[in-house]
Specification:
5 helices, 6 strands
Amino acid sequence: MRAADARIAELRERDARLRGLLAQRPQIEQALATPEAQDGGSGFLAEPTAELAAAALIQHLERVVADASAGGRGCAIVNRTPLGDDVGGGRYRRVTVQVRLRCGNAETLAVLHALESARPWLFVDALGITAQRYFAVPGAAQPQEGGLDVGFNLYGYLRPAAGARP
């Protein structure tokens, strides 16, 4: 009997979740109908060349890190290096920047979220996070305890050329 009651409660919770999702349908349809959502190319990097796109990626990264770190004290860019040309030969040309940061936990989360949730669409790949016992913060007299050494590849895609085939 208890098993049946538990199953009924589980099904009621599931039903409530599904009804909540169905109630959101009008808002989702409205959001998808906006001009920005209809523009299929808005997720691509705006720059015409890989070099300009890499420079724009680096500038965007610097803004995101500055926004996530109040006064530059909680997160710092250790290294950012544009990687060579994407030789995949596909329709979409990938532009990649290799990044290394030293940040606190909250700042790391804020940076990664801001990078992956913004437009144009950017992606984080090859993410490696190592806990540091001490880390230096720019402007601080002494190193702080804790912190993370974060390395990843940040990439986006150039808009395909008009004559490119899939």
